[in-house]
Amino acid sequence: MWSSPWGGSEELWSQAAVRLSREGHSVSASILHWPKPDAAVERLRAAGCRVYERQHRRLFSLALKACAQDPQAWRAERFIRKESPDFVVISCGGFADDLWWSEACRKVGVPYVVIAQAASETWWPDDVHFSAIRSAYRAARAVFFVSQGNLRLVERMLAGPIPNARVISNPFNVDYNAISSYPSTDPTFNLACVARLEPSAKGQDLLLEVLNLQKWRRRNLRVSFFGNGTCAEGVRALARFYDLNNVNFEGHVGNVEEIWKSNQLLLLPS
């Protein structure tokens, strides 16, 4: 991801990387450098993965551009040649991020797959991206989408089917066999919105707007927001602007199962 050190879109590839490493495979991961990396980065290293943190060096990038080279594509090709992988997984926070990695894979001759996490009608590929995305997808062994809706939307954007597309599920951070008793609704119904605080993607503003309606103000419920994000201050300010006294901001919670010991319903305005 480009907007934060970690997010839900990182869980699929990182959990796969940890599992493969523990099974004896050699795994290298190239991620963006952040001054305060997420704890998940250390979990990768602890599992035996080699983690490389990419840093943007402006002068070096300018020098490459002066030589008519794309800095990102040059770094991707250099990394792949150095690591010499048998297979590459390109994980996109969206559906068309970091496509220079696919270009590098094709140039070096390494098979790859693309994981396309998010897609939105608010960003439509321009003519340059249109051709680049189709070429990257066409050459991939598979393109994995995390919902049928996203797959249909991207096919519409690219004006055609994606024959090698597959739909897979993101992991959820609750034990599959976990069973918790239904929390009491006395004195209130407790609803949880679990997502990073970023209204453009997660829609917390819409939820707060609904809670501001008189019929919802009269209802016996409390909404708790779980998560951090780059728009946390703005979301909290919007709740104050609406003068909502039935809203809590709980921050990031490491153990998701704990959320459902006191909340009856998940809200996903995204």
Report on the structure:
The chain contains 11 helices and 10 strands. The two termini are 18 Å apart. The longest helix has 14 residues, at 9-22. Helices cover 38% and strands 17% of the residues. The radius of gyration is 21 Å and the shape is globular. The strands form 3 sheets. Strands 3-4-5-6 form a 4-stranded parallel sheet, with helices on both faces. A 4-stranded parallel sheet has the order 9-8-7-10, with no helix packed on it. Strands 1-2 form a two-stranded parallel sheet. By secondary structure, the protein is α/β, with parallel strands linked by helices.
Judging from the principal axes of the Cα atoms, what is the shape?
A: globular
* Strand segment count: 10
Pattern of helices and strands: HEHEHHEHEHEHEEHHHEHEE
Structural class computed from helices and strand pairing: alpha/beta
**How much is the radius of gyration in Å?**
21 Å
Give, in spatial order, the strands making up the sheet with the most strands. 3-4-5-6
Keywords:
270 residues; 10 strands; 11 helices; 17% strand; alpha/beta; globular; single chain; four-stranded parallel β-sheet
In brief, what are we looking at here?
The protein has helices spanning 9-22, 39-46, 58-66, 71-83, 100-108, 127-139, 148-157, 199-202, 204-211, 214-217, 232-241, and strands at residues 28-32, 50-54, 88-92, 112-116, 143-145, 165-167, 189-194, 221-226, 247-251, 265-267.
